[in-house]
Write a structure and sequence with these properties.
Elements lengths: L1 E6 L2 E3 L5 E9 L6 E7 L6 E7 L5 E3 L7 E6 L4 E6 L8 E7 L2 E2 L3 E5 L2
Parallel strand pairs: 2-11
Antiparallel strand pairs: 1-3, 3-8, 4-5, 4-9, 5-6, 7-8, 9-10, 9-11
Length: 112
């Protein structure tokens, strides 16, 4: 069992930045990779980025490549998503995920 808790969402102007955190607890030593997903109103949930917990390999959706950076602090069992140059289209609830475990989500709103 793994428990995930996201934080760091909020309201930001276009062009601004936010850093999301995903704190994991439970059987964290079994975690192979953690991913960030997002779901905007009326849209399907989509993967944003993921990081391999073993070798740190990262992947990004084309829509966020070059703007978002995923990182991890294994000592704190926490994964971060640094979001820069935010756009209105980034507005969504952001979730972290590993295997079948999901956090509760954190709202990110980009608006002028």
């Amino acid at each position: 069992q793994v428990h995930l808790v996201e934080s760091g969402g909020g309201l930001v102007h276009p062009g601004g930045s936010l850093r999301l955190s995903c704190a994991a607890s439970g059987f964290t030593s079994d975690i192979y990779a953690i991913a960030w997903f997002r779901q905007a109103p009326g849209k399907e949930r989509e993967v944003v980025s993921c990081i391999n917990n073993i070798d740190g390999t990262t992947h990004y959706a084309d829509s966020v490549e070059g703007r978002f950076v995923i990182s991890r602090d294994n000592g704190r069992n926490t994964v971060y998503l640094q979001m820069n140059s935010l756009e209105v289209e980034d507005t969504a609830v952001y979730y972290c995920n590993t295997e079948q475990f999901w956090g509760q989500g954190t709202q990110v709103t980009v608006s002028s």
